[in-house]
Amino acid sequence: MNDIIIKMLLKQGESETLEFKTADADSTAIARAVSAFANSKGGTVIVGVTDKGEVEGVKNAEKRNMALRKAIRQVISPQPYIASAVVDVLKGKQVIVLGVPSSEDKPYTCESSIFVRQAAQTVEASGDVIRQLIAERHPRYSRWERQLALGAIMEDLDDKEILLTARSGNESNLTDFGPDFTSRSVLEGLGLVEGDMVCNGAITLFGKRPALKFPQTRIRAIRYSGTGRENLADNRVFEGNAFTLLKKATSFLEAHIPVQSAIPTDELRRKEAPAVPFPAVRETLLNAVAHRDYAAPDGGIIVSVYADRVEIWNSGLLPEGISPSDLKTMSVSRPHNPDMAHVLLIRGYMERVGSGIQRILAAFKQAKLPEPEWKEMGGGIAVILRWQKSGVEINERQKRLLETLRPGEATNMAKYRKEFAKDVKERQARTDLKELVDLGYLWVRGKGRSTEYVRAERELP
After folding, report:
1. pLDDT (tens digit per residue) in 202-255
2. CB atoms within 10 A of CB 346
């Protein structure tokens, strides 16, 4: 979570998924907001901000953050999944950001009461709402990661990874496994073991050889020498638990993403960097590992590196009611695998639930690269990360359009032809708009006749 994303949230103002709390706000009031988000659609609490979005800052923010996490754990039952971070927003001013996803373990109680979000308010739930929350609660075994892995035992797991997770959780104060933890006690604390049997999530996260039981956990990594799939330069299949897969796939991307170099005007030494911001690529890979659909036996993850882009595909569709275009404006997450996301957070791989996509967008904007694309395809989600195409120039029609539209404003084919492309055929006008989408100046909203082209944040060079 960085200051750019925080400033975007502050501009949005309080809403059903966002609440501001002053620096001296009572921890119980903050806990009520957290429980309300967990019982509703999820959300973000920013501490150190007035209700008008003005930054006050929190003194001793790191200490206050740890105290808040402890206080929240003491008054909310069951313990919700919370990610928190201290962020520098203004010089000398820090805020605390608490990210809370919606959960299947609702309803959560805060000091024996149940709270929900209504518009921009945290309110106590009525009897009807409580009954609805209970009815919506999923049984323990509805999630694939909580189902028992038949035939699997503790010896199939890597003790080192489990114990490292416990030490990381205790040191960061994100969890409390106690001073005398064991592999079994850690898994019990994570809800990933029952008696002598371990859950699917434990195999995926900590298994020694999870692909023997779940071949869908493999990652296929491909390098093409061109922009199409005709010339295959490298082809790998990676196996292992989540942490091993992340290391292997990250190494593959580091080896195959092109490096661009430049000589700064104020220096003599040439500087080299990946063609795309590598932290954003790593974040995309992490999201694929954390949020993909592990229940599909024919699913998986495919990492493809082309001459002009990186594509990372994972099996599984978005939650009902969310489209790919919605992802760019969401500040909260609905993790498909909350147990896996929680462990990755404890290990320091994830910063805050719901902030990953915003960090990716911010990194590409700062690098002045085409805005990333999210697409539903082949029964899964593909993320396309492009770098600037060489030899592509913007014509005068396209330039006038971009100079007219402000970020967030939209046009369509008919308006574009009428206002900017009267002298060209419809086919050329469509090519104009497609090129601007490919270059990251526009993004597509809607389908068919309702298709609109929305101005992205990227500035003209």
Report:
1. 999 999 999 999 999 999 999 987 777 877 889 999 999 999 999 999 999 999
2. 23
What tokens were used for 150?
A: 């038949």
Give the model's pLDDT for residue 335. 73
What does residue 146 show for φ and ψ, rounded to 5 degrees? Answer: -95, -5
Q: Residue 344 has which token pair?
A: 């990755």
E strand or H helix that includes residue 133: helix 127-136
Sorted by where each begins, the domain ranges of the chain are 3-137, 144-208, 215-386, 396-455
The closest of 281, 214, 207 to 244, measured between CA atoms, is 207
Q: Is 143 helix (H, G, I), strand (E, B) or coil?
A: coil
**Residues with Cβ within 8 Å of residue 238, at least 6 apart in sequence:** 218, 219, 220, 221, 244, 245, 248, 249, 252
How far, in Å, CA of 406 to CA of 275, rounded?
27
How far out from the chain centre does Cα 422 lie? Answer: 42
User: Dihedrals φ, ψ of 86, to 5°?
Assistant: -100, 130
Q: What is the CA radius of gyration of the chain?
A: 24
How far does the chain reach from its first CA to its final CA, in angstroms? 27
- Which carries the bigger pLDDT value, residue 366 or residue 34? 34
Tell me if 98 sits within 8 A of 66, measured CB to CB: no
Question: CB atoms < 10 A from the CB of 268, how many?
Answer: 6
Long-range contacts of 260-269 (CB under 8 A, 24+ apart): 260/387
Question: Which CATH number applies to 396-455: 1.10.3430.10, 1.10.10.60, 1.10.10.10, 1.10.1040.10?
Answer: 1.10.10.10
